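Table 4 source record.
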Amino acid sequence: MHDGVLATAPMDLPLARAARATRLTFLLSGIGMSAWAPMVPYAKARLGLDEATLGLVLLAFGGGSMVAMPVVGLLTHRFGSRRVIGVGGLMLCLALPLLALAPGAWWLALALLYFGVALGAVDVAMNAHAVEVEHRAQRPLMSGFHGLFSVGGLVGAAGMSALLALGLSLAAGALVVALVLALVVASQWPHLIDHVEANDEHAPPLRWPGMIVLALGLLCFISFLAEGSMLDWSAVFLRDVRGVSPAMAGLGYAGFSVAMAAGRLSGDRVVARLGPVVTVRVGAAVAAAGFVLAATVPWPAAALAGFVLVGLGAANIVPVMFGAAGRLPGVSPGIALATVTMLGYAGLLSGPALIGFLAHASSLATALMVVAGLLVIACASARLVRS
């Protein structure tokens, strides 16, 4: 074994079904989150919101997730991840129709707050459940689970866009997606492992996270910051710095997304071969090299190649970090994962703004180089994932 990587063992039928249910839960979470993206311009137009008001309203989504995660960590420890996934999944099904029907800006903000709480609940609980499945299977599985989340992100955005293009109203499209998600929850919930933490005599006692958990969370902050910078700044960089046409500027994020999904879907084999420490070290180095390539070589093709490298390199950092946090001895997986996820989301939410401040003070290329430097720190700290 490499640096604590799990050994390979065959899965029995109940465990195989639990692994499939976990994959579909990650897929559900990705679909639920990304289905909102095509709804945003419709909601903006229907409610007559300007950009500033919409920006303030959208903060409620991240705020809901951030507030929910510590509470969900406690609930997961107390009641088990299976119950939290079931309740959170059903809450998520209800969220999309509420977003489509919100009659005003304040109602939309409340719906987004609820949406964030539901997604935060599913996110923490499904990762805690994934750690347990990976532990019982005695093989790396976490990257594949997160790969299904990435696939869900592509499916949710494309699916909702297709429904709206077919002429369905916003409410009808949201209801269709909600029914699909409800079907996944109802069909897969019985196969989830019962009482991963709750009522388990071997479960660790409830303790607040220590320094190692916080350190893993800060490394997740860096990785999520890199992902957030791609989401919000890759198109701007290609258009304003490299002179790519507005119609083609989105190719940077598309290349990053496809590379990340491919990297995660093949990531379990990489982790099994290299081990978690080397996987994080190499991944962070590749992602840093991608930012350097995009920022320093003045050709659009080089920037596109750099963004693909960022996707490939960053793909397995977060799954490995989550797996390491969930396996820490003497710490509740729910509490540890809630802490790490919350710090990661903080990077995703605050990172783009930090990039903007740095770009305003210097240049966008310089800001991307700073992200590369942070990834070098993650590379140097890879031994934290040894477990």
